[in-house]
User: Which sequence fits this backbone?
């Protein structure tokens, strides 16, 4: 079999460039698709799209230099161009994360100081002729920026929950792989690029980009930031007697203090009753329509609002958890599931003896607000 | 210009460029197969998944695998026997995947006669297999021509059917252009692949292989443009997803009902009266929002579309945009004709009988 290692390596490099540009295009596509929604964190998609695009451009120059440039002066020129482009990409990333809305989650002062340092490096790099000095400056800048990339990702992960969190963790792992691969691939480290290191680096870059794709494909996790803003109302009720055990209006809910809604007002009471009776009624009617066993309603969409529903685990299946929300989000479904588990866990002895607390539900379940506060963080 | 016979494995200055282009073809078709696979996996109805999407997974995957074997045969195999072996595996993989594709497509829809193309294709594969076993040399061109002509004929018929889908017609702009895009895309694949065969290379040289690869990449772009522009293939199977249809007056009286999977019982007819109106009112009260209501149950979806005078209820297996569009269209059509009648209705239910024909026209039953 005529198999040439150079060809395998070349195909690997080519694949990582193509998949990388696809990833970048996907970021832009998602960014423009959700631009109208005007979500501040949607900007993350644009930052990743452009940074990936710039870094790949550097990678293309590097590939051309490594595979097709034989003249020494051209080789050095391409190397300098490649490093400069890479540093521009890093500078763009640092500049973007040190501006709004990321200043809310990151301390922008050290990032801006690093940005100034990177700009200075970009300006002085063409004048550094000693190879080892250039190498040290580049490695230091790359590692410093890599730290910020990971730090930024960790901050973003903290804003999310459930499936979205997993998706972002996967994306970060991919990013870590890809960046490590780029560092290994760097010809400054291996002046005459060793084939083994080159193959390892390509494998790492490809793995990283593929993991990134899996992490974000068809799942705009960035849109789920501030999922809490889409909460409207929570109702926990008992189906047989349509008794509302617990309810919360998130619009008037104050995270730091007490509830501002009047839990005992007649209007609130009647809405609670309507909710418990309405949902139970709809469930019975739709089951009747289907002439089948009891089938649970999972979700109701009315206009542009949603009612997400969860049901207690046996033997507490008579308890229904309803969440009125503005958008259908994975994070909200996860939040409701979490609420259900915590409510069941905390009050399991009360829930199996509900008749004993009839009329005093509010007093018994009042402290559940602390669980909600924790779940919202 | 007639060249000397091309020597395999391919060597020379074009080798690296050809390898890059052909590995790119493999990557892109593999990716599009993955895209369809993810769509299949994400389908909520596991019992009756979309057959067309499953078919496309196989076809694109087959094309990608075939090219891997072509590369092994043309660039790595050092003996002619080994090369023929690799190429044969590649072509048979493609043909088997093509057979699965046709089977899936015909399972989802009838083209002339049930599984007609799958049967013909199966016979062709057996014929080629026997010819390889008894030693007829290079069945590549025959296989290619037979495969392509049957496949092409099928695609033309499929696209004519596709373009006549009422839902697609109603929402897709430039439908003719889009349909042609796919057809041209597949034509490019065929021509491009033909240019990479030994017969062409012996006559015109390796440059034609480069051209062939580029044409295939153009074909890929056109195919992708089509699939990313038209609605998901899940939407095409909306007819299979409808269970029951009810049309009610705002007062709650049911004026039309239809069971698509089984005949409606009397209980169904009576239970509708007033119920949907109540559901709609409750939801309106709970959410402060007007408009379409969608109730998602474990296995069924209830789509409640309120109009000015009437409300439509569609019970289906999947929440599809096509069903919402078609239900809305039916309501608009009914209201356009019956607006004045409903205002002064004398409780004569027979007057609504023509709704059956209107529903037939839209829901194609």
Assistant:
């Amino acid at each position: 079999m005529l198999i040439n290692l150079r060809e395998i390596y070349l195909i690997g490099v080519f694949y990582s460039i193509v998949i990388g540009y696809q990833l970048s295009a996907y970021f832009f596509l998602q960014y423009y698709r959700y631009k109208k929604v005007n979500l501040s964190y949607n900007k993350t998609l644009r930052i990743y799209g452009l940074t990936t695009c710039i870094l790949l451009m550097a990678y293309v120059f590097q590939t051309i230099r490594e595979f097709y440039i034989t003249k020494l002066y051209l080789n050095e020129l391409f190397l300098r161009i490649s490093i400069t482009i890479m540093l521009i990409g890093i500078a763009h990333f640092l500049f973007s994360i040190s501006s709004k809305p990321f200043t809310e989650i990151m301390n922008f002062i050290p990032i801006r100081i690093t940005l100034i340092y990177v700009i200075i490096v970009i300006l002085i790099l063409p004048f550094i002729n000693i190879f080892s000095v250039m190498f040290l400056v580049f490695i230091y800048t790359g590692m410093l920026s890599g730290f910020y990339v990971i730090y930024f990702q960790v901050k973003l992960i903290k804003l999310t929950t459930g499936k979205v969190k997993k998706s972002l963790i996967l994306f970060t792992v991919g990013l870590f792989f890809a960046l490590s691969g780029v560092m290994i691939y760097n010809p400054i480290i291996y002046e005459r690029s060793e084939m083994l290191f080159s193959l390892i680096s390509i494998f790492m870059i490809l793995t990283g980009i593929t993991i990134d794709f899996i992490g974000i494909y068809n799942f705009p996790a960035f849109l789920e930031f501030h999922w809490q803003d889409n909460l409207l109302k929570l109702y926990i009720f008992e189906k047989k007697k349509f008794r509302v055990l617990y309810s919360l209006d998130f619009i008037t809910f104050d995270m730091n203090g007490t509830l501002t809604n009047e839990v005992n007002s007649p209007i609130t009471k009647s809405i609670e009753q309507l909710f418990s009776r309405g949902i139970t009624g709809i469930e019975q009617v739709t089951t009747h329509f289907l002439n089948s066993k009891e089938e649970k309603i999972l979700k109701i969409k009315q206009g542009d609002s949603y009612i997400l529903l969860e049901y207690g685990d046996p033997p507490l299946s008579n308890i229904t958890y309803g969440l009125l929300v503005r958008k259908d989000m994975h994070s909200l479904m996860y939040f409701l599931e979490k609420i259900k588990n915590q409510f069941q866990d905390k009050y399991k002895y009360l829930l199996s003896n509900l008749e004993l607390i009839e009329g005093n539900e509010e007093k018994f379940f009042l402290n559940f607000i602390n669980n909600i506060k924790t779940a919202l963080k | 210009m007639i060249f000397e016979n091309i020597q395999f494995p391919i060597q020379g200055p074009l080798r690296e460029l050809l390898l890059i282009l052909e590995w790119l073809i493999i990557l892109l078709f593999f990716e599009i197969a993955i895209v369809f696979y993810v769509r299949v996996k994400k389908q909520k109805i596991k019992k009756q998944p979309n057959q067309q999407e499953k078919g496309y997974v196989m076809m694109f995957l087959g094309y990608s695998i075939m090219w891997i074997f072509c590369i092994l045969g043309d660039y790595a195999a050092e003996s002619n026997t080994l090369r023929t072996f690799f190429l044969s595996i590649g072509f048979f993989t493609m043909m088997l995947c093509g057979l699965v594709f046709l089977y899936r497509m015909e399972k989802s829809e009838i083209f002339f006669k049930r599984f007609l193309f799958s049967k013909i294709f199966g016979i062709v594969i057996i014929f080629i297999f026997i010819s390889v076993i008894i030693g007829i040399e290079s069945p590549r061109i025959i296989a290619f021509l037979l495969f392509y002509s049957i496949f092409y004929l099928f695609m033309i018929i499929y696209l004519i059917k596709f373009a006549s889908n009422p839902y697609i017609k109603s929402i897709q702009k430039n439908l003719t252009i889009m349909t042609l895009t796919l057809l041209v895309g597949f034509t490019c694949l065929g021509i491009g692949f033909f240019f990479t065969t030994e017969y062409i290379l012996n006559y015109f040289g390796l440059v034609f292989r480069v051209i062939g690869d580029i044409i295939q990449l153009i074909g890929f772009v056109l195919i992708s443009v089509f699939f990313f522009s038209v609605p998901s293939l899940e939407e095409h199977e909306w007819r299979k997803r409808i269970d029951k249809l009810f049309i009610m007056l705002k007062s709650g009286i049911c004026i039309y009902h239809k069971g698509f999977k089984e005949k409606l019982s009397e209980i169904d007819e009576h239970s509708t009266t007033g119920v949907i109106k109540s559901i709609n009112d409750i939801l309106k009260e709970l959410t402060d929002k007007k408009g379409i209501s969608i109730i998602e149950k474990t296995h069924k979806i209830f789509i409640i579309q309120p109009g000015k005078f009437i409300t439509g209820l569609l019970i289906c297996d999947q929440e599809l945009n096509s069903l919402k569009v078609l239900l809305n269209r039916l309501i608009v059509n009914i209201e356009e004709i019956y607006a004045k009648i409903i205002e002064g209705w004398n409780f004569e239910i027979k007057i609504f009988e023509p709704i059956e024909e209107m529903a037939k026209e839209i829901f194609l039953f």
Remarks:
- Chain B has a mean pLDDT of 85.
